[in-house]
């Protein structure tokens, strides 16, 4: 394959597998408000990804066919876990904020037995294979999301989930185990339906905060790492690369996560302690592909287009210093307060400067 003829799929896979690329590949995460502004700017019907030279990932998933979900009030939503969310207007965007945590008051194993845990049989995979086959002609295909720590917080509430491992270890093991058993069964079902057609799956969790880890490494090893390990093994059984999203300062977990077999690390919030780009590339660049990096807490929303371009060059120079192993993207969803000029500058500079740094 000639580097000059790479399509989006080939370019992304080459970076993930640390092979030469014609240019640094790119991806995008953005809120609905940002997508609407991009459509308005570029014109209805225009392929936004193609117009901005964004490679991106395409996703497939199973269709929910389980028991009817309970009724909701206007502006409210509910999912198969019983988690309820309210649509809340904030300056710059509308967000679905969780308003009900189904296991917030559970105190015993019997309480868990009375909860209606989701079942893999509630999801229909029959349409997935054809869709995945269609998408992979041009795009990397992503499927799945397995996050036991995150879903522990969604079921119990953030504060209680942080207290649980210290105050209620038996209950914590039971909750996290039930969450993980569902994820494992659901994803094995999806992977079997699309065997050979899925490239990437998320085994993920937000273990870091702005200033350091949310939990200790010992607690992670005890309660969550064993489940991450079996999810990673499941992905690798089907030849699927593991995408690990971990916000904030998560550096203490990276040696273990890398040893367990994650393949792609996102979002690389380099402004947080321990997340310095050059050190991450030095210590993990031979084993991990980095995804993200472009600061969207300060530079993207509040910087100038020239500062955004400098940030793009900064990330490419550090994370693609060997010409590969990096997919450029914002550190998280582009928010509604991000100037359109900065978004356009990010992807234009990535296209131009990223081509200069390709092997």
Q: What value does the average pLDDT take?
A: 96
Question: How would you sum up the major sheet?
Answer: 7 strands, parallel
Task: Quickly name the level 1 CATH class.
Answer: Alpha Beta
| Tally of structural domains | 1
Principal-axes shape call = globular
Strand content: 15-25%
SS summary, helix count:
14
> If classified by CATH, what would the architecture be?
Alpha-Beta Barrel
- The parts where pLDDT drops under 50 for at least 5 residues are none
Radius of gyration: 21 Å
Secondary-structure content class: alpha/beta
Cα separation of the termini: 14 Å
Characterize the structure shown.
There is one protein chain. The protein has 14 helices and twelve strands. It is of the alpha/beta class. The strands form three sheets. Strands 1-7-8-9-10-11-12 form a seven-stranded parallel β-sheet. The mean pLDDT is 96.
Task: Give the arrangement of secondary structure elements.
Blueprint: H1 8-16, H2 32-42, H3 48-51, E1 57-59, E2 63-64, E3 76-78, E4 84-90, E5 93-100, H4 109-113, E6 123-124, H5 128-135, E7 140-146, H6 148-156, H7 158-167, H8 169-193, E8 200-203, H9 217-237, E9 241-245, H10 254-260, E10 264-266, H11 277-284, E11 289-294, H12 299-302, H13 305-319, E12 326-330, H14 340-357
């Amino acid at each position: 394959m000639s580097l000059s003829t790479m399509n989006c799929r080939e370019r992304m896979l080459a970076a993930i597998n640390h092979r030469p690329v014609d240019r640094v590949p790119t991806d995008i995460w953005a809120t609905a408000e940002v997508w609407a502004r991009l459509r308005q700017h570029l014109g209805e019907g225009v392929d936004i990804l193609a117009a901005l030279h964004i490679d991106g990932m395409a996703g497939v998933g199973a269709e929910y066919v389980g028991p009817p979900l309970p009724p909701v009030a206007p502006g409210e939503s509910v999912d198969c876990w019983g988690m309820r969310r309210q649509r809340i207007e904030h300056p710059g965007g509308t967000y679905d904020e969780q308003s009900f945590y189904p296991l917030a008051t559970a105190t015993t194993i019997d309480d868990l037995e009375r909860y209606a845990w989701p079942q893999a049989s509630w999801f229909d995979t029959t349409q997935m294979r054809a869709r995945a086959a269609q998408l992979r002609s041009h795009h990397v295909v992503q499927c799945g999301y397995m996050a036991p720590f995150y879903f522990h917080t969604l079921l119990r509430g953030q504060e209680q989930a942080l207290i649980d491992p210290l105050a209620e270890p038996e209950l914590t093991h039971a909750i996290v185990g039930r969450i993980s058993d569902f994820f494992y069964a659901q994803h094995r079902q999806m992977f079997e339906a699309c065997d050979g057609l899925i490239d990437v799956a998320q085994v993920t969790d937000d273990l870091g905060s702005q200033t350091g880890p949310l939990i200790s490494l010992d607690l992670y090893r005890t309660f969550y790492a064993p489940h991450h390990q079996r999810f990673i093994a499941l992905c690798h059984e089907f030849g699927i690369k593991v995408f690990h999203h971990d916000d904030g300062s998560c550096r203490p977990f990276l040696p273990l996560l890398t040893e367990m077999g994650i393949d792609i690390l996102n979002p690389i919030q380099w402004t947080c302690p321990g997340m310095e780009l050059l050190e991450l590339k030095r210590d993990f660049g031979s084993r991990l592909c980095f995804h993200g990096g472009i600061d969207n807490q300060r530079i993207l929303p509040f910087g100038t287009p020239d500062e955004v371009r400098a940030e793009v060059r900064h990330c490419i120079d550090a994370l693609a210093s060997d010409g590969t192993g990096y997919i450029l993207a914002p550190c998280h969803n582009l928010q509604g307060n991000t100037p359109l000029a900065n978004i356009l500058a990010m992807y234009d500079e990535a296209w131009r400067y990223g081509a200069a740094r390709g092997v």
